[in-house]
Amino acid sequence: MSYHCVFMHQKGPIEELVAQDRLFALTLKENEIGCRFYETHGVILGKLDQICSNFQEGVEFLHSQGYPTTIREQGGLGVVVDEGVLNVSIILPTLLKPYSGLYEAYDTMVMLFKEAFTSFPHKLYFYEIEASYCPGKYDGVMHDKKWCGIAQKRMKDKVIISATIMVHGHQWCRGSLMKTFYEIANQSQDPRFPNINPESMWTLSDALNRGITNDECMKMIQSTVKTWVQGL
Prior knowledge:
Layout: E1 4-11, H1 14-17, H2 20-27, E2 32-39, E3 42-45, H3 55-64, E4 69-71, E5 79-81, E6 85-93, H4 102-116, E7 125-126, E8 140-142, E9 145-154, E10 158-166, H5 171-185, H6 204-208, H7 214-230
Parallel strand pairs: 1-2, 3-4
Antiparallel strand pairs: 2-6, 3-5, 6-10, 7-8, 8-9, 9-10
Helix pairs in contact: 3-5, 4-7
């Protein structure tokens, strides 16, 4: 079977964009691979966040700071999204083996990032940064600091691998916002929620010591995805 890629780029309110991955996936044919980018402003919370003992108080704090919220379907916990954060989702048909298995899907996103950012002077690693917000085994790391997180959602015949990339902006402020959220929301100190150190994360611009834009990052990923799909 010959595959080709369908690209999408969206900007808009957080509550309208976060759920669009599933709708986009439903439009794709069995020989189409989706690559969706979106930019928005707010905090995307995970389903697990809702069991925090003081969840609603935490949400009210985020709203008071000017951050609208929504709940995502993919695994993980809360993440901040704003004009310096690029969200990217790769949507694969489950028939596309060996790329679409549970762990293979994560490895596919890792492979694409390593190819897309091959010009970066620092080596990319992927392991959990426990003191970050939304920590996971596939955190993108440079110099022991997290610059992206990866999650996935599995459908009947599609798998959606999503990444939140901190491209530029004040990452310490994002981390401090989420630290305060969990201090308010998780007053029962449930160990399933992170004890965030804002210094554990940074942006690509910080890591590279130069300005990099969302558009620049998006173009590198688009080019890599296109080349990869053509070679399938």
